[in-house]
Here is the input.
Amino acid sequence: MNAVELTRELVQIDTINPHSPERPCAERVGNLLVDAGYSVATHEFAPGRASVVARREGAGPPICFAGHLDTVPLGAAPWTRNPFGGEIDAGKLYGRGSSDMKSGIAAMVEAALRLAKTPLRKAGISLVLLAGEETGCEGATHLAKVPGALGRAGAMVVGEPTGNRPVIGHKGALWLRARTRGVTAHGSMPQMGVNAVIKAARAVLQLSSFQFDVAPDPLLGAPTLNVGTIKGGLNVNSVPDEAVIGIDVRTIPAQRHGQLRKQLESLLGPEVELAPVVDLEGVRTPEDDPFVRNVLEVTASVTGEREPPGSATYFTDASVLTPAYGGIPTVVLGPGEMALCHQTDEHCRVDRIEQSVEIYTRLARAWCGA
Ligand SMILES: [Zn+2]
Here is the structure.
C-alpha cells in the first residue's frame, strides 16, 4: 500500500456530506492503522458519521496529523472524469476529494505506517481523521466534547490542500441569523401592524457601517462582515411579521467571538434576535515558532521550493482542534491544490502526494525522535 494507491481507493468510496456517511472510509483507514499496531478508536456523531483517532504513545505529547474524510457534493456541471474513479492521467489523480482531502489523509496514513515499527524516543504520534468537516467541523466538535477522545498533542499538521506550502493561519467564521419580529396586518392598513422588514432594513444599514475595533493581522488582514441574505414577508399586500438576515463575519485570531456577538447585539438593539449558525474561531501560529521553522525547513528540503508561510481563505478543523489541544502550534500543509477544492474535475498531482508522505514522515521522525 502506498499513499497514491490509497488516495485512489478512498476517492472510490463516496463520502459526500451529508448523503454518504464516512463510516466505510473510516473503517478502511482505521483497519490499516490497527494492523500496523496503532491503538484506534472510532467515534460517531450521528449514525455512520465516523471519525477515527489513532495513536502510538511516546513520552512527550504527540505530533497530531489531522484531516477530514467527507467531501462536498459534485455540483451541477457534468464531470469529464468519473468523480469516484480515482483515475490517474498525466500525473494527475482525478475525483471528488482527491485534493480536498483524501490525498492528505492517505499521505498521513502512509507516513504513520512507515513509522509503525520504529521506537519513539521523544514523543508519540496521533492521527485524527474526521467526519463532517464540510458542514462546519461537526466531527471535530463532537470529539472535543467526548472526554479523552482527542488525547493530547504538542503540535499539529492539518492536511488540507495547500500544494505543500506551509500555511500558518486562517480566519475564523461567525455566521449569524438575525431575526426581527412584527405584527401582521392588511397591506392597505399598515398603521395596524408592525413591519418586520423595515426593522430588518434598519439592522442591515447599521451592520453596513459597523467598524471592527481590532488592528489587522499582518498575514490574514482585517476582519470582514457581509450581509449575505435577507428574507421577509409572504405576500405584497400584508404587513410582514418576520424577517431574517444572514450575516457572515470572518474574524482574525485576535478577536473573541463571544465579545463580538455582544458588540453586534448592542449595535442592533433588543428588536433584533441574533443566533449563531457557524461559530469557528481563527487559527494563527507565529512564524518564529520552532515547530513552524522546522516545517518550513523540512518542506523546502523535500519540494525544493522555499516560500514564506502562507494563509488560507477557508477554515479547517484546526478552529476546533487547536483550542481543544490548548493552543498548540498548527500548520496546514497538504498535497491538494487550494484552487481545485470543491471544483468540477477536481484532481491532485501525484508527485505532490509523494512529497507529502516524505514531509509528514520527516516531521514525525523529528518530533518523535524516531
Ligand atoms: Zn477540506
Remarks:
- Residues 68, 100-101, 133, 160 surround zinc ion (CB under 6 Å).
